[in-house]
Amino acid sequence: MAGERTFLCIKPDAVQRGYVGEIISRFEKRGYKLVAMKFMKASDELLKKHYAEHVGKGFFEKLLKYMSSGPVVPMVWEGKDVIAQSRKMLGATNPLKSEPGTIRGDFSIDMGRNICHGSDSTQSAEREINLWFSEKERVEWKSMAESWIYE
Ligand code: DAT
Ligand code: MG
C-alpha cells in the first residue's frame, strides 16, 4: 500500500506527562505505519519555520516558548488517508472542543498545552516532513501486517 504520509509531533507537555507511548500506540493500533521518528529539542529557528503561518499572531511567542521548553517527538506516519484521519484522532485545536476519545479530548484541557501536532493538508504534510526529516531519516520498510489492515 503506497500510502499518504503525514507529520505528527508529540509536544513537550505530552513528553513531560508520560504520554509518548500512549500516543504512538494509538496510531500503531489503528494500523498506520511509522516511517520516521526522533527525540529532540526543537530550536526557535526550526519552530519559526514550522509555524510560519502563525508568526506575528498574538499567541505566537507563547507557542514558541511552550514548543521549545522541552523535548518533542517528531514523526512521519504512512497509510490510507492518514492526514485527515490523524487530525480526527487528535481532535480539535482547542481541547475544550475536542471529542472524548480523541487524543486532545482525552489528555488535555488548554489550547496552549494540546499534546500533539498533526499536519492539516497534503501541502503542509509535505512541507513539514521535509522540514523535520532528511530523506535518509525516512525509513523504507514493508509492514507484514499490511494485508491484515488493507483488503
Ligand atoms: P493545530 O495545531 O490544530 O493545527 P493551528 O495550526 O491553528 O492548530 O495552531 C497551532 C497551535 O497554536 C495550536 O495547536 C495551539 C496554538 N494556537 C492556535 N490558535 C491559538 C489561539 N487563538 N490562542 C492560543 N493558542 C493558539
Ligand atoms: Mg496547524
Automatic annotation (TrEMBL):
Tell me which EC number(s) this protein carries: 2.7.4.6
Kindly provide the name given to this protein in its UniProt entry.
Answer: nucleoside-diphosphate kinase
The UniProt transmembrane annotation reads none
Q: Name one GO molecular function term.
A: nucleoside diphosphate kinase activity
Positions of the catalytic residues: H117
What is the originating organism of this protein?
Dimorphilus gyrociliatus
Could you tell me which InterPro entries the record lists for this protein? NDK-like_dom (IPR034907), NDK-like_dom_sf (IPR036850), Nucleoside_diP_kinase (IPR001564)
Q: Which residues form the Nucleoside diphosphate kinase-like domain?
A: 3-140
